[in-house]
Amino acid sequence: MYSSSPQPTLAVANFFIEKSKASGVPVDPLKLQKLIYFAHGWHLAVTGEPLLDENVEAWPYGPVVPTVYHEFKKDGNSTIAGPATIFDGKEWVIPRITDPSALSVLEKVWMEYGHYSGVQLSNISHAPGSPWEEAWKRAQEHGKVRGVDIDDSNIRRFFYQAGLPAST
Question: How far apart are CA 65 and CA 47, in angstroms?
Fold first, then answer.
């Protein structure tokens, strides 16, 4: 059942942006980053495979996927205005998730965390002993403020040990 390959990170971002618009629950760039991180963690815990086709990095405000940061930094602290687009060589397209098992995890993450603010989700991602905290400490030891990957095996272990809702 779980044989999905890593998904385009901007497609994962667009899933949450579409959910936000459909439900009227705002998503700003901070919240989007954390939702993507939680989805990646859940997917790793459930399937043993990464959801994202990119690494998650430890930044001062928590886990960040740089591509998503650069795509939506123009929105600042405001609700994200529209989906990410990519140029496929011919035209600009909106990347979307089509894998059923990835969609299932994303739906459950939205149901569980969609009502939280970005700050609340950031507080969760900063929990003592979290993968972000471990990577952030390592980054500071090397004088970095970003660019240190959060190891997927640490993310998987953390989310697996934390336990997922029974419906997952």
Answer: 21
Three-state DSSP at 78 gives: coil
Lowest-confidence segment of 26-30, 40-44, 98-102, 108-112 by average pLDDT: 98-102
Predicted TM-score (pTM) of this structure: 0.92
pLDDT tens, position by position, 114-127: 999 999 999 999 98
Q: CB–CB of 7/39 below 8 Å? A: no
Which run of H or of E encompasses 63?
strand 62-64
pLDDT tens by residue, 78-100: 999 999 999 989 999 999 998 99
Residue partners of 93: CB distance under 8 A and separation at least 6: 85, 86, 87
Euclidean distance between CA atoms 164 and 42, whole angstroms:
7
Cα(17)–Cα(39) distance, integer angstroms = 14
58: β partners: 63, 148
